[in-house]
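Let's inspect a concrete specimen:
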Amino acid sequence: MPQHKSAEKRVRQTVTRRARNRTYISSMRTMIKKLEASTDRDEAVSLLNKTKSYLDKLTSKGVVKANMAGNTKSRLERRINTL
């Protein structure tokens, strides 16, 4: 239990941010799964662009680290190029 007002506020902020970040991460994972499951190249390219944009957005918000986003985008692009 927090002993100070500032610690109570920090707990409230942490709970809110954790919930928001979990939503972002869940959406990201869903987008990646849809992209990996697609077999049509045109559909996959359009999903790739949306996914890359979303990863960049999450990176700028600080939800995911830049290297993780870059590695994920690279892996997905290699996967699409094999279609």
Residues 58 and 70 are 12 Å apart (CA to CA). The mean pLDDT is 96. The chain has three helices and no strands. The chain has one domain: 5-81.
